[in-house]
Amino acid sequence: YMSIRRSERAMADLLAEKGSSLIMAFESALRTGLRGETGVRLQVLLEEMTRSPDIEFVAVTMPDGTIVAHSERTRLGETLRMQGEEVDEDRMTGLAPGDDVRWTTIRMEGRRVFVVYRNFLLGRENWSKDLPPPTIFLGLDVSPFEITRRQNRSYAIILSVVAFLMGMVCLLAVSFAERARESRRRQFRAEGEVHRLEEEVRRREKLAAIGTLAAGVAHEIRNPLSSIKGFATYFRQRFGDGSEEREAADIMVREVNRLNRVITDLLGLSRPSDVKPRSVCLENIVAHVLRLIRQSAGERHVGLSCRTSRSVPNVFVDVERLGQALLNLCLNALDAMPDGGTLTIAISRARESVCLLVRDTGSGMTPEIMEHIFDPYFTTKGSGTGLGLPLVHKIITAHGGRISVRSRPAVPAKDGNGSVGGETVFRIWLPLAPEEESGSARR
Ligand code: ADP
Ligand code: MG
Fold first, then answer.
1. Nearest-CA neighbor of 82 among 95, 72, 73?
2. What is the domain-level CATH number for residue 374?
3. Any residues with Cβ below 6 Å from ligand 1, and which?
């Protein structure tokens, strides 16, 4: 826009310059003539000048617009016409002619012209000082000016359109790039989901295989096991304290107990995943489990703490199976705190469920371990079965609940005594009892 303005101004300056030179040439041509012939020369010169194709007219007017000299003889004595009307003194003052040239594009003498005008200086000495001097108007062909202006305009329009199109192209490119990135992100997320589902299927298949096997074998093993345990206990009593035989009998009892645990877990896993839920207060189940582990917690110097936030609604669960799951979590927590710590159980209201939190300050887990804790047979303990958490998972999902785990492994203590800073938090979300659900919907 600025360069257009500049070029238009340059063009106008050029035309004005040309007009000014022509006026000057005209005046000096007149001056050189003989005094008596001035009037005749003036007319001839005027007519000669307008022969040049780019000069439309030349006129000299009095301050009130009366034409005293004109390239068209017939206009002599008439009034100068501007914008289709005859000019008067006011309009002439409005043009404000001075000793320096001025210019404007206007309709004058019946056509659109680039008119250059100034005071007519010839014979100034003859004019009265009080009266304004006459004015000379030189009408130049306006078309070069208009053509340049038109070209500039179309050039500006083309430029704007190109700039606009480029802007649009950039916008489109940006939006395409954004969309491509979004779809890549979505694909990435979908792949993650597929991976998770594959894991889930793998785990279920493994569980199903174990289930069939376990159901067949477990019962067969259980009966002989109780006989073995009975005999081992019997022999244990028959030998004195500290004797080698008694120690062997102790080991037998311990190992049988371990086998029993494996079988219990296996049976738990192989049982069909249907549960018999009813509306219960979660706090009662927690209290029951805490009673079961109180003694072993005391032996390991583990503090127990249970927190329930106010007005927690009833949950819809199978009391026995949820108790089994919670017990498994608590036993794991105790195993993780051989040198003492705190086991916290908290119950709180979540959006459309109740959240049960089990937190311990034990050894914690590395991310590599966490990846496998729900896999059957995965254990890091010498006497572990690796069936506890798969069972917990199965029970919770059978209830339509959800389980999550967060953990931070412990680091060796600065004084070289044990390790510190470990923590594991299991969170379980359980469904609300039906009457609570409709209640919350009403709320
Ligand atoms: P098991 O207890 O027989 O080893 P689980 O399935 O109960 O089998 O647990 C699997 C593994 O998960 C454990 O061996 C242990 O490494 C890890 N784990 C579970 N709970 C905790 C916990 N609270 N703190 C640290 N590690 C844990
Ligand atoms: Mg366990």
1. 95
2. 3.30.565.10
3. 328, 332-333, 336, 360, 362-365, 369, 373, 378-381, 384-386, 388-389, 424
Which residue segment(s) compose the domain that 111 sits in?
Answer: 2-141
Neighbours of ion ligand 2 (CB under 5 A): 332, 388
Confidence of residue 158 (pLDDT cuts 50, 70, 90): very high
pTM of the model: 0.54
Q: Retrieve residue 332's tokens.
A: 């794991």
Position 146 in a domain: no
- Sequence-distant (6+) residues with CB within 8 A of 84 are 107
Token couple for 147: 């053509």
Same domain assignment for residues 278 and 352: yes
Look up tokens 């010498």; give the residue.
Answer: 382
By most ligand atoms within 8 Å of CB, the mutation choice from 293, 300, 373 for ligand 1 is 373
For residue 331, give the ligand nearest its CA: 2
- pLDDT tens string 325-371: 999 999 999 999 999 999 999 999 998 899 999 999 999 999 999 99
Total domain count for the chain?
Answer: 3
* Distant-in-sequence, close-in-space partners of 263: CB < 8 Å, separation ≥ 6: 214, 218, 221, 222, 225
Q: Ligand 2 centroid to 260 CA: how many Å?
A: 14
**Domain end position, chosen among 141, 166, 183:** 141
Measured in Å, residue 5 CA sits from the centre of ligand 1 at 82
pLDDT tens digits, 32-83: 765 556 667 778 888 888 888 889 999 999 888 999 889 998 988 999 999 8
